Amino acid sequence: MIFEVLKVIWLLLPAYTPNNFAVILGGIKPMDFGKNFIDGKRIFGDGKTFSGFFGGILGGILVANVQRLIENAIEFRYFSALGYLDFIILVIALSCGAMFGDLFGSFIKRRLNFERGRSFPVVDQLTFLLFSLAFASLTNAFWFLFTSLDILIGVLITPVLHVLVNFLAFKLKLKEVPW
Ligand code: CTP
Ligand code: MG
Predict the structure, then answer these.
(1) Ligand 1 pocket check for 45: Cβ under 6 Å
(2) Are 95 and 15 in contact (CB under 8 A)?
(3) Is residue 174 over pLDDT 80?
(4) Do 45 and 83 touch, CB atoms closer than 8 A?
(5) Is 49 helix (H, G, I), strand (E, B) or coil?
(6) Which of 36, 46, 90, 128 makes a 20 to 30 Å CA pair with 109?
């Protein structure tokens, strides 16, 4: 079971890491161009920028390629069991899904009057994953690598991992708030 959990974490790194790249590369050009939605509130808010969005997607794809190299070096076979085209389509789906889900989460938060940066449990931890899985489910490679149990494990462990990693980053003073 522990092995299955580690497998799922490994396979989902291209969905987990885009947001970290977004934090580092974000800040240039808000994706809503500073505009409001019909309810008079910001569409996405200042926390969603083009540099973060595209930097995040490219970051996730970069991480997956490094994972594939590592797998090849240690004869571990998940991403490296796929042909390169199937692999790249899968990781583009995982990584784009994560950033679109994150954007959608902010859209929902603004509609519900959550100011930028305020934590919204479940939405903050799961929308990105659900979008990522939904995008990836359209690829053949996804169903080759993930069993139904793996999908369930991913949905269950992601909020827990999210809380643990953020708390650790807060303790290490990498983040100002523990979420
Ligand atoms: N970020 C970005 N562009 C994105 C996603 C994230 O620039 N598309 C950067 C922003 O600097 C953002 C940080 O990453 O502040 C953290 O992302 P997130 O927690 O998703 O945004 P919040 O600032 O918390 O805003 P929101 O309330 O909309 O979630
Ligand atoms: Mg946030």
Answers:
(1) yes
(2) yes
(3) no
(4) no
(5) strand
(6) 90
29 located within any domain: yes
Do residues 82 and 11 touch, judged by C-beta distance below 8 A?
no
In DSSP notation, 6-35 reads: HHHHHHHHHHHTHHHHHHHH--SSBTTTT-
Report the residue count for the chain: 179
The angle subtended at Cα 109 by Cα 103 and Cα 115, nearest 5°, is 110
Does a structural domain hold residue 28?
yes
What three-state secondary structure class fits 36?
strand
Residue whose Cα lies nearest atom 21 of ligand 1: it is 47
pLDDT value of residue 80: 97
CA-closest candidate to residue 60, choices 29, 88, 26: 88
Domain count, the chain: 1
CB 111 near ligand 1, within 6 Å: no
pLDDT digit string (tens) for 87-112?
999 999 999 999 999 999 999 999 99
Instruction: Tell me which residue range forms the domain holding 55.
Output: 14-146
The verdict on the CB of residue 47 being under 6 Å from ligand 1 is yes
> Residue 27 CA: which ligand 1 atom is closest?
7
Q: Is residue 179 a part of any domain in this protein? A: no
Residue 175 lies in a domain: no
